[in-house]
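Per your request, structure below.
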């Protein structure tokens, strides 16, 4: 029985989409376990760039089955747009894409509630992607939600109506100025639901159990990152699901004992999109260079990502909470050309130096303590073997491996599938 997990360890956008696509050939099933269209997972191959939001990143591999798990929230309108973009690729959607009946639906009014909630918060806003994620998960845990399986019941439209009416009353409660035409949004939603109903719905926990029993290999794909986890992230500036390893168990119905490897993905530096604390954030030329060279703009919202040095205190915390067995370092190429690299190894917090993540990490409470390392000049983007990596990059990697007590088995040197260096395979 074998399920491997792939998770982002920072504030999202680590490069999960790219790596899931790279790893898919080793798996039979790719299963997304949480999040929704707030995610933007980018993959590039053959000169084409794709951004997926809800559909798992194994979709371009003809042999892989892609499962949207019960822990995911689906917006039929965005889902339809994603499917449209797959047209022209040789993908048998009925067979390659299976959707859990227990996944919850995002209604147009969830999106409006998200907007109203954010507007009411003013400067304290979360910086949500405004995709209705928070309100949809609130209805899930509040036991009011509409699920994919409900779409097979004759009275689903009545349930929809009751929920949407309740939401409308709630929007007025916020007393903010939100412009919308609900009738237009509903027409779009109902048309998209009709398309969703043509897809294959499954009892995904049963499907995955049988698949495991028959020896199939499953890769569980996470969305967002550990620092956005509803419990362990920088609350309240987080998303509304468990992005950490435990979320794969509840989001797919997989038992903890079935999990083998936990792949933890991180960027060689740090980014964050949206509001919230970010101890190593840079407001200088270095941060600007990372953003420019790394093309750090949100794949879902297009917002510029905030950039900073690698934060080992936060990364250690994420490695521990997830039980990461192998690390994958992304965007190493973006650091080429920096004279000196800094890595945060501790925080100065209330007059003391600490190496754990305290309850609050706002800038007014702490300052990062940095270790410095010499950078490298070499362009990494054309390298394909670990033996070609510059010496100072190898030192950077060795330092991180020692601090994190976990091997870095893959180094990514560009957005394309091929720009991937395995450090765990012979011949490299
Ligand atoms: P995800 O949400 O974790 O899947 O990551 P995103 O797709 O939101 O953001 C990662 C961005 O970095 C995308 O634009 C990728 O194409 C790009 N990317 C991934 N790996 C690398 C890499 O090693 N180097 C560079 N330069 N870009 C990368
Ligand atoms: P992927 O899977 C980066 C951030 C938002 C906001 C906060 C809450 O591509 O890594 P939400 O819409 O969930 O209510 O927003 O979380 N956020 C992400 N940041 N990558 C993501 O997904 C994100 N999904 C949500 O910017 O700060
Ligand atoms: Mg992303």
């Amino acid at each position: 029985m074998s399920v491997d997990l792939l998770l982002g360890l920072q504030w999202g956008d680590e490069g999960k989409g790219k790596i899931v696509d790279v790893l898919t050939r080793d798996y039979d099933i790719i299963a997304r376990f949480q999040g929704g269209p707030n995610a933007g997972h980018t993959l590039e191959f053959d000169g084409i760039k794709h951004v997926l939001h809800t559909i798992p990143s194994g979709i371009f591999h003809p042999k892989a089955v892609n499962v949207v798990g019960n822990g995911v929230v689906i917006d039929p309108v965005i889902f339809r747009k994603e499917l449209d973009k797959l047209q022209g690729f040789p993908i048998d959607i009925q067979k390659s894409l299976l959707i859990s009946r227990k996944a919850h639906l995002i209604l147009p009014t969830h999106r409006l509630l998200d907007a109203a909630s954010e507007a009411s918060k003013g400067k304290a806003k979360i910086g949500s992607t405004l995709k209705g994620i928070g309100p949809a998960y609130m209805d899930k845990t509040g036991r009011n939600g509409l699920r994919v399986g409900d779409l097979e019941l004759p009275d689903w439209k009545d349930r929809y109506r009751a929920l949407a009416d309740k939401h409308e009353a709630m929007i007025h409660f916020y007393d903010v100025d939100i412009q919308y035409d609900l009738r237009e949004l509903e027409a779009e939603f109902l048309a998209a639901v009709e398309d969703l109903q043509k897809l294959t719905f499954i009892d995904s926990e049963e499907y995955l159990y049988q698949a495991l029993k028959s020896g199939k290999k499953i890769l569980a794909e996470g969305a967002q990152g550990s620092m956005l986890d509803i419990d362990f992230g920088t609350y309240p500036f987080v998303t509304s699901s468990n992005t950490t390893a435990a979320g794969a168990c509840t989001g797919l119905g997989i038992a903890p004992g079935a999990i083998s490897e936990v792949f933890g993905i991180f960027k060689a530096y740090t980014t964050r999109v949206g509001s919230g604390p970010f101890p190593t954030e840079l407001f200088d030329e270095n941060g600007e260079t990372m953003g420019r060279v790394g093309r750090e703009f949100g794949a879902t919202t297009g917002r510029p990502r905030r950039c900073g040095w690698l934060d080992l205190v936060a990364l250690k915390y994420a490695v521990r909470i997830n039980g990461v067995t192998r690390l994958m370092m992304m965007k190493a190429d973006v650091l080429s050309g920096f004279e000196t690299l800094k890595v945060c190894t501790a925080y100065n917090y209330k007059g003391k130096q600490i190496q754990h993540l305290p309850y609050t990490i706002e800038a007014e409470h702490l300052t990062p303590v940095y270790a410095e390392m010499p950078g490298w000049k070499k362009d990494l983007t054309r390298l394909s073997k670990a033996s070609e990596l510059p010496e100072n990059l190898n030192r950077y990697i060795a330092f991180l491996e020692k601090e994190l007590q976990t091997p870095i088995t893959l180094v990514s040197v560009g957005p394309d599938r091929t720009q991937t260096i395995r450090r765990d395979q012979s011949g490299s």
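Residues 17 and 270 are 17 Å apart (CA to CA).

Regards,
D.
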